[in-house]
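Lab notebook, bench 4. The sequencing result for the construct came back, and we need a structural model before the next group meeting so we can plan mutations. Quick request posted to the team channel:

Model the 3D structure of this chain.
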Amino acid sequence: MPIKARIDMLSTGIRTPIGIKVFGPDLKVIVEINNQLERTLRGLLHTRSVYAEREVGGFFLDVTPNREAIARYGLTVRQVLDVVESTIGGMDVSTTYEGRERYLINVRYPRELRDNIEAIRDVLVPIAPLSPRPLPVSPGGTPSGMSGSSPTPAAMPMGAAGGMSGGIATAGDAEMGGATMAGAGMGRSVRPNPGKGQLASFVPLGQLARVETVMGPPMIKSEMGSLTGWIYVDIDTSDVGGYVSAAKKLVAHEVKLPPGYFLKWTGQYELLERVRARMAWLLSLIHISPRVKLVRGFTMFGMSFVYVILQDGTDLYLSLIHI
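Done. Here's the predicted structure in token form:
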């Protein structure tokens, strides 16, 4: 049986003697038609097995960037996705050579920091360093809008400056007291920046993108410009043409195809129909020709040939089809 399946796959593209291809623009509708065909053909006489490929059934992790939030922090979509690649998916940074063996060095977060949705949403994305803006100074040398007893901007905590504590962890906070600021529901952490006068800032990935798990097709097949779904049919009879004729009548009665969707019967049946059409044309030509003396058929080099001898002794070789 495995050898037969391989031969069928090489000759027809289908691993079974009969196959059905469903064409259409929507994979979800194709899946519904596949299931209907599977249920319908399972009860047909001489059907050994019917299997419809599951076009939708894979689980995927989708990270959809929020462009408005990304622009608000002065980032680009490429920068956010680079963080996703390097921390979650992994990034090849170098190659190690051990004799004739070669191994890529892949760097990413440890498993405990990326094995659930919440952990992935907490991945920190660096944003542009913030430079402290000096307050305007009055003619007397005192910053305008501040009394003499008020602390200077250099000594003022970052959380007290309006607009600077809105969900961003900075290294300036650590320099002014060594305390870690924890924003509400954000799990921020302070990381020092060695650059003098610059504040290293981070924002969680969950605020810049939508992270979720979705179901989708594990593999998408297309043919003749349309999406396709395949059904494999194995039979216990050698009458492939008779079985397909009965199956077509049953499918036409039981399965209603939406507009824009159609079926194509393939496998050994497709080869049978092709040979039948060519033989009908050839035999009709031979019967009407008074010069034909002998007709023989044979197979050689993977081709089917018809050997025709005419009355005047001329030999004709007509190729029919690749096997």
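The longest strand covers residues 226-235.
Will bring this to the meeting.
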